[in-house]
Amino acid sequence: MKMNNNDILTRLRYALNLKDAEMVEIFGLGGIEIAKDDIQAILSKVKKDGHEVDEEEFQANDYKKKLDNNMLESFLNGLITFKRGASDSEKPVPMTMNDRNVNNILLKKVKIALTLTSEDMLDILSDTGTILSNSELSAVLRKEGHRNYKECGDRYARNFLKGLAMRYRD
User: Fold this and answer.
1) Exposed (0-12), middle (13-18) or buried (19+): which is 164, by Cβ within 10 Å?
2) Residue from 45, 152, 36, 166 nearest 102 by CA
3) What are the residues whose beta carbons fall under 8 Å from the beta carbon of 131, sequence distance 6 or more?
4) If we measure between CA atoms, which residue out of 32, 132, 126 comes closest to residue 9?
5) pTM reported for the whole predicted model
6) 125: three-class secondary structure by DSSP
7) What are residue 45's DSSP bridge partners?
8) CB under 8 Å to 56, separation ≥6 — which residues?
9) Which of 6, 98, 113, 148 has a beta carbon 3.0–4.6 Å from 63's, enabling a disulfide?
10) Structure confidence at residue 62 (pLDDT)
11) Are residues 5 and 102 in contact, defined by beta-carbon separation less than 8 angstroms?
12) pLDDT digits (tens, 9 = 90+) for 39-70
């Protein structure tokens, strides 16, 4: 199943054990003012027919409030500031997130926010049974348009977020 931005934010929040108040603060640091109610709507799945139902009856990727690329990128920028402090430079350079490069930008910005090395990222992926070479990771972290750039699939992003949860929640 294809991950959407809401799935990414939900998994990242779980992996880093972020509370609603911290999420509001992180969005604010990224330049978006958002209320706790909006955070909960972004993280809450829609139930079938609007009735109270069992967990498995939730719609697969249907959330109460859609998280667009701009909001996700703002959150990731805010996460960098939240984890590392304010930068000396004015603003982070926008990476123009689109539906094809969401996972690439996710990996780059989480790497920066958590001050991970490429070796750390490979270890996190290997913890989930995903083996990636250093050159493959390097291709995923390159700027879009570079001749060695490679698009990051959902499988790698999902396993990276799963590995983060294993590492930061244990």
Assistant:
1) buried
2) 152
3) 125
4) 32
5) 0.86
6) helix
7) 63
8) none
9) 6
10) 81
11) yes
12) 999 999 887 655 544 455 444 668 889 999 99
Helices 20-29 and 36-43: crossing angle in degrees, nearest 10, is 100
d(CA 59, CA 51): 12
Beta-strand (E) ranges in 23-119? 45-47, 58-63
Question: CA–CA separation, 146 vs 72, rounded Å?
Answer: 23
What count of other Cβ atoms lies within 10 Å of the Cβ of residue 157? 21
DSSP single-letter state for residue 46: E
* Secondary structure (3-state) at 58: strand
pLDDT tens for 69-97 read 999 999 999 999 999 988 776 565 566 77
List of long-range contacts for 82-88, beta carbons under 8 Å, 24+ apart: 82/22, 82/25, 82/26, 82/29, 82/113, 83/113, 83/114, 83/115, 84/112, 84/113, 84/115
Per-residue confidence (pLDDT) for residue 53, from 0 to 100: 44
Query: Is residue 14 predicted with pLDDT exceeding 70?
Result: yes
Residue count of the chain, please give it.
Answer: 170
Give the start-end residues of each E strand in the chain: 45-47, 58-63
35 vs 116: CA distance, rounded Å: 30
